[in-house]
Amino acid sequence: MKKTSTAKAANAANTATEQLKESIIKHLHSTLGTDVNKASHQAWWRATCAAVNEQVFDGLRNTQRTHYEQDTRALHYFSLEYLMGRMFSNNLHNLGIYQNAKQALAELGLDIADLEQQEEDMALGNGGLGRLAACFIESLATLNYPAVGYGIHYENGLFQQSFQDGRQIERPDSWREYGNPWEICRPESVQEIAVYGYVETVFDLQGQMKKVWHPGRIIKGVPWDIPIVGYDGSAVNVLRLWESRASDFFNWDVFNSGGYIDAARENVEAENISKVLYPNDETDAGKELRLIQQYFFCSCSLKDIIRRYKRRHGDDWSHFGKQVVIQLNDTHPAVAIPELMRILVDRAEMAWDDAWAICQQVFAYTNHTLLPEALEKWPLRLFEKVLPRHIEIIYEINRRFLLEQVEMRWPGDDAKKRKLSIIEEGHEQMVRMGHLSVVGSFKVNGVAEIHSKLVKSDLFPEMVALWPDKFTNVTNGVTPRRWLKACNPRLATLLDAKVGDDWPTDLKKLHKLADFAKDPALQDNFMAIKQQNKADLAREIKKLTRIEVDPAALFDVQIKRLHEYKRQHLNLLHILALYRRILQNPDYDMVPRVFLFGAKAAPGYKLAKEIIYAINKVADKINHDKRVKNRIKVVFMPNYRVSLAEKMIPAADVSEQISTAGKEASGTGNMKLALNGAITVGTLDGANIEIAEEVGADSIAIFGLTVDEVKALYESGYNSYDYYHNNPELKAILDWLETDYFTPGKPGELAAIKRSLLQGGDPYLVLADFESYLAAQQKVDTWYRDKALWAEKAILNTASVGKFTSDRSIEDYVERVWQLKPCQIKK
Ligand code: 7GP
């Protein structure tokens, strides 16, 4: 019985492989117009994508038809960023045809790994927030929830990074210069968007006052659909990204009356809107073009949602709030709130209260950071210029809020009104997008337990007093399809054998592994896989940086955007301390370590760039110093991005999660690394706290001040000089940075870091946490010497982080916020 079913499965696989092979060749001929004898890897890759798309598009059609027929309630995820990375292997895995494709290509004389490298990363995001959006839309499809992701079709994604003499150089990322096989243009769903102009007050025949917006400019939004394939299921959702173009009917008068040059200039401006992703992570850009980007995609998306709604319900708005829920990914899309009000009040002529009731059923808001510099505020004058009608609507939202909520609760308290007003008074009036988002949403969430608590206690305490039930938590998660199954196939195969192959959709199953954490056979297998992954990465390091590293050394990995609060410089101080100990004691006993960094700095963030430079200069010195005898290697991997993360994470032994407590909202790299068996060195910050709860205190190296201790230290008046003067080792390494030891002939080149930590006041408490960080690292060193002990801890990490699948995050959102039902897709 068993035998025949295995034989049947093998037959089916053979047929699937054969069909794929035929389809690839067919597309090589008819889609790529080339031939097996002369096709490049790029052409083979594209032909394979086209073959895969036959299945993707089937799923897409079925999904869209089913959702339409069943008139399902759907989630609409509004995000300025989607950090998708590559789609090829992910689509193959989720369709369940990765092995078939690998086989088909092998029979054609090709290595699937070579083809995977042909794809440019789709890097339409900066960091955590954008990658979270990508994991979420994949989980939504996997769990069969009707959902659409909305965003911008940037022509240039996050800049490409290289190093010149250790300094970061940025180049544009024209990721789709030669087209992108995964996207479909939908000219039939184009939208027209207005900006600028003025508002006229008119009275209709009944004497009713009306506001009429006379726009100054019309822009066309062209949608590109990217199918998002769910794992093992038949659901294929879409990510709809808007590209801006000059409107067809725009300004023809000017054009015809001889204003050719002006008309041409307008063209360029309209097309500029989707030209480039702003490269700031956790800082507010404050630029006119950025506000237009936000409004452009929100307006296009809302109109798209309404068009689809009207196809079913005509002008009957009574079901809108039941059918539509919109998640605002941070405040970047908050302008959608006044935009929906405008459409309902001005266009659909609805009464204000009815329109507001709909808005409050529809919007929910996720906060991703507490850093003050990231909390968006727009100069009121700029807002008024770009969106003259929306600013009036915001005034009215604010007037009613202050009158009906704030005044009722705190009568006569003007200080409260000033604090809560959506409009900030002061030298220059500002629109506070966070306030607008809270007032306009029915739910507000943070992204890890501690962060959600701080959102309530530190960011919006009065809003909590007004609406206690509005605030909730949804701890972040990551998709185990990309971040384990696809990126770490060796470990995935071991897990299939040990816990069954359904862990990708039921990650808690990994817990079975914990029973074998002490089993020498499993330990050997697990660590042998880690070793092979490290050998692979060592080859990649050599290729990218020419630096040779020993795969037997401990691989210590810090990968994330470069930011002072993430404290890459604390990591650097540790490296300097070890180096100095070696110079002082040639026999200094330490486990050989490779320190690996991957990080982009925002182009305008000076100190972040200085930190990159310092790490590169220190790396150069240490890597070439014979006295070190390879006990330390330092590698800054250029152009860190999703596809590089996929190579680094499976090879990591140690995961650096060392932010100042209270600053990292959640972190998601921490989850990916633990899932792949790395041991965290981390502070009690963000999701580290929940990771520690899951893996247990013995399998994580926690150090540093807690959130409460950080607050107390700030309040008591932190003086970083105390730590500098009281710790001779710390003083010596900081002073070292001022010499020309690492930058021969150029003393002081690395001094900016020391300055920020002393004269600059050390805002992120690097010096305060230094000692306890080094102690945690010492503990890690000791653990690593005991192979069995280390293996046990690594296995326990993989076994214990099932909670951090993005499927669980999505189910939390469904239950606490979205109230969606899954919808099985009919073939
Ligand atoms: C990040 C947070 O810094 C990170 O801790 C979190 O895991 C991630 O969002 C996903 O929730 N924030 C951003 O990427 C960001 O740009 C500014 O925040 C709004």
From TrEMBL:
Modified residues (N6-(pyridoxal phosphate)lysine): K672
Signal peptide: none
Catalytic activity reported: [(1->4)-alpha-D-glucosyl](n) + phosphate = [(1->4)-alpha-D-glucosyl](n-1) + alpha-D-glucose 1-phosphate
CDD domains, alphabetized: GT35_Glycogen_Phosphorylase
Gene Ontology MF terms: glycogen phosphorylase activity; pyridoxal phosphate binding
Record's keyword terms, sorted: Carbohydrate metabolism, Glycogen metabolism, Glycosyltransferase, Pyridoxal phosphate, Transferase
Cofactor or coenzyme needed: pyridoxal 5'-phosphate
PANTHER family found in the cross-reference section: GLYCOGEN PHOSPHORYLASE, MALTODEXTRIN PHOSPHORYLASE
Family the entry assigns: Belongs to the glycogen phosphorylase family.
Described function: Allosteric enzyme that catalyzes the rate-limiting step in glycogen catabolism, the phosphorolytic cleavage of glycogen to produce glucose-1-phosphate, and plays a central role in maintaining cellular and organismal glucose homeostasis. Phosphorylase is an important allosteric enzyme in carbohydrate metabolism. Enzymes from different sources differ in their regulatory mechanisms and in their natural substrates. However, all known phosphorylases share catalytic and structural properties.
The name this protein goes by in its record: Alpha-1,4 glucan phosphorylase
Species whose genome carries this gene: Alishewanella agri BL06
